[in-house]
Amino acid sequence: MTSPTLAAGVAPRPLQHRAFLFGGMDDFLSRAVPFVREGLDDEDRSVVVVVAEPRLSALRDLFPDCADDMFIDASAFYAHPVRTLRSYLELVKREHPLRVHALAEPVWRPEWTARETLEWARYESLINEVFKDTGASALCPYDTFALPPQILEHARRTHPRLVQGDAERPNARFAAPEDFSAEVDRARVFPAPHESEYLPVTGHDLHELRRWVGERSERHGLSRQDAQNLVTAVNEVAANALVHGTPPFGVRLWTEGPDLVCEVGDNGYWNTFSPLVGFVPPSSALENGFGLWTVRLLVDLVEVRAGWDGTFVRMRLHR
After folding, report:
1. Which of 2-6, 191-195, 304-308 has the lowest mean pLDDT?
2. Average pLDDT of the chain to the nearest whole number
């Protein structure tokens, strides 16, 4: 698991990742404007502004000479945690050797479930690992007037430094990404409903599994593309279970509110798992975690539990 590759002979430079706690537009602009200007004045940096309205328009008006593509609406950009992580990764690689200077406001939606909120908090934590040696600078605004205390606490747990008012300070509440990710996993509740459908997998030929998942996905209302994505994801996880798991193993499928849930489980403990496997993009298809990274891109949410009673990989797609 690696950060974006730097040119040969270039010493890595640490990431600056700060949570900016603000209250109201004036407070926001008092820190955001100097931050953007600092990046524009440094010829070694590439500035991107990813914030929500009305703050996006306010900044666009204050920097009328800047290219329009420097400004991105956060409400569209922050649609899927792993895909958003990939988009920032592509940006950093594209702009190299310039260092990305990002005003990056995470979007928190009140309709999200607790598990969706936790995944976005994990995303903020993963920034510290994925971009640790890139020299990127990220200032992440959090509106203390609008966001609930739980989200502000997530900000404190996932950013090494805090900015509030005129002060910037080290953050004593910060948790290392691996520790924070493990906390998220421990918070999972993993019962499967009794009415779930179950397919035992008894051999290495996964054709019947793919057919079974595909038929039920469309029957439960997934689009053809989403059904195909789920089949591909389940096949990847099942193939890993054949290599790393212990028989017997099988697949469960059920609906839960707006979600279709599919779980691959076996009786073994996959010791290849760490709290960051499948979240930090691998450098090649041969690296541990490439399959799970791909699975996370295909579906809306992946949850993993590996313990004394087996290993379970649960995939969710919104219908």
Report:
1. 2-6
2. 90
Q: Find, among 89, 158, 92, the residue nearest to 119 by Cα.
A: 158
CATH topology of domain 16-186: Rossmann fold (3.40.50)
- The CATH classification number of 197-318 equals 3.30.565.10
Domain boundaries, the chain: 16-186, 197-318
Q: Are strands 71-73 and 45-51 parallel, antiparallel or unpaired?
A: parallel
Would you say 6 and 92 are in contact if contact means Cβ atoms under 8 Å apart? no
CA distance 131 to 1: 11
3-state secondary structure of 257: coil
Q: pTM for the complete prediction?
A: 0.86
- Nearby residues of 9 by Cβ (< 8 Å), 6 or more positions away: none
Beta-bridged to residue 104, according to DSSP, are 50
> What percentage of the chain exceeds 70 in pLDDT?
93
Instruction: Show the DSSP H helices in 189-289 as ranges.
Output: 207-219, 224-244
Q: Of 175, 182, 158, whose CA–CA distance to 273 is shortest?
A: 182
Query: What amino acid occupies position 116?
Result: E
Q: What is the pLDDT of residues 201-243, one digit of tens each?
A: 988 889 999 999 999 999 999 999 999 999 999 999 999 888 8
